[in-house]
Design goal:
4-stranded mixed sheet, alpha+beta, 3-stranded antiparallel sheet, 132 residues
């Protein structure tokens, strides 16, 4: 279950951002963009996040996952479509296979809600690497 390692990485990034910000005493929520093709099960991630937060600045924080649908674009004809699950990676218009994934692999902290109530976006933070 790699969701635990993802949860730990999110907690680490949020704690680092909180340490760089004055007067943060607690984190109330974390909003995470999770792509349909990221290989992460949101319910499992939420469960792991709750366990991993114990004893940290994020203890009791809510993890809000925002699904990002997978989309692809055909290079020859420029048609764009939702890939679905399992992903359809050939163009439904021209049947071409030269496609580019436009979205759906995201695994990114979108927002953090600190104790003081100010929503914060971690500046210059690298997204969690996509696990395939």
């Amino acid at each position: 279950m790699h969701e635990m390692s993802v949860a730990l990485a999110v907690i680490d990034q949020v704690e680092t951002a909180a340490a760089e910000t004055a007067n943060v005493t607690a984190v109330r929520s974390v909003r995470l963009r999770v792509g349909e093709l990221a290989g992460v099960v949101p319910d499992s991630l939420t469960f792991c996040f709750g366990l991993a937060c114990a004893g940290t600045l994020l203890e009791g924080a809510e993890l809000v996952t925002e699904p990002v649908p997978g989309r692809a674009r055909c290079t020859p004809c420029a048609h764009e479509w939702p890939v679905g699950m399992p992903p359809r990676l050939s163009c439904p218009v021209c049947e071409g296979t030269a496609v580019e994934l436009v979205s759906g692999r995201e695994l990114q902290i979108a927002a953090v809600h600190w104790e003081d109530g100010d929503p914060v976006r971690p500046a210059a933070r690298e997204p969690i690497p996509e696990e395939c």
